[in-house]
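User: Last request for today: this protein with magnesium ion, please.
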Amino acid sequence: MGLEGLGFDGGWAATAAEVSGGLPDARVARVVAVDRHGGWVHDGEREVPFEPAGRLCFTAAAPGDLPSVGDWVLARYHDQGQAAIVHAVLPRRTLLGRKEAGKGTYLQVIAANVDVAFIVQSCHYDLNLRRLDRYLVMVREGGITPVLVLTKTDLVGRDDLLGLLAQIDAAGLQVTVIAVSNATGEGVDRFRESLEPGRTYVLVGSSGVGKSTLINQMTTPTRQMTREVSHTGEGVHTTVRRQLIRLDQGAMLVDTPGMREFGILASEAGVVDAFSDIEAWAATCRYADCRHGQEPGCAVRAAVINGELGEERLQHFLKLRREAGFHELSELERRRRGRAFGRMVKNAKKRRDGG
Ligand SMILES: Nc1nc2c(ncn2[C@@H]2O[C@H](COP(=O)(O)OP(=O)(O)OP(=O)(O)O)[C@@H](O)[C@H]2O)c(=O)[nH]1
Ligand SMILES: [Mg+2]
Ligand SMILES: [Zn+2]
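Assistant: Here's the final one, the structure of the complex with magnesium ion:
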């Protein structure tokens, strides 16, 4: 394949020549994956694990200075070329990062040297204009072109989708929108056609919106990374690595783990509490994103059928859930489960202590 297959060009060659002056036996490579355990570099021939050189760690002023996915680096190979030590990170052309509040604000790098960022939001629950705005700021600050990808169009009606598109339009965000369904394939060709050979793209967005599934649609089946739809919808797919995937046509896509979400309005939490009975049934639906319509294995509909839950109450709940401001349900759901888990632990302790 060669380095060109990873997006290397004359500009990078010139930068590498400048930096490599002090590193005669180092080779150029691109960081193609990073997770909690380590990272991998590709030199155009193969992918091997790397570690940053001690000196690089020592001189890094912030965590963001260390090699991140998408970075071009100078590496020395050892163990017959089976592993590498990264000695220098070439100055980045673009940088997608978010500011982490904590002990002094620092930048957490999501991906380096990407041309376009797909901000992925599901049009079922997930769309939130304020959050979208924060993503747009983050992307544009990094010198990257944003594109909004609305997924799961199969889960909303035509009118709801048109309503969402009108809302985005009215907000004046100046962003291209691609609406897709990984389930029906609608819009997937348009997404594919937007990918240009030699360019690097990153997909960002909340967990579960369909980033990895969309990337899988771009690759051949043998290179797929996530498994079949899981019955609980949890744990199985969740991406834990930032990973650069090269498509046969020459474009590169960086998959990222979903980002944790921000604040939730107290009134929204109140709605969930008011419908905790429905939420309890919903937790046992076969599909995690069940709409409690015609899906097989829906525990909520089963409760209506056997008379435990009134149809009217369900309709009221579904209506509230559709309304704007209630798209954070999945996050609330996790919180609710967290509370239930806390109770379980407490009860177990009581039993253990003989109380
Ligand atoms: N109905 C429907 N389900 C989808 C669609 N796209 C993805 N899914 C399902 O949504 C779930 C999450 O999809 P993923 O691709 O793993 O989501 P992700 O954004 O990569 O999530 P993280 O890796 O946790 O950040 C899976 O069960 C998918 O099968 C879609 O367009 N329609
Ligand atoms: Mg994923
Ligand atoms: Zn259901």
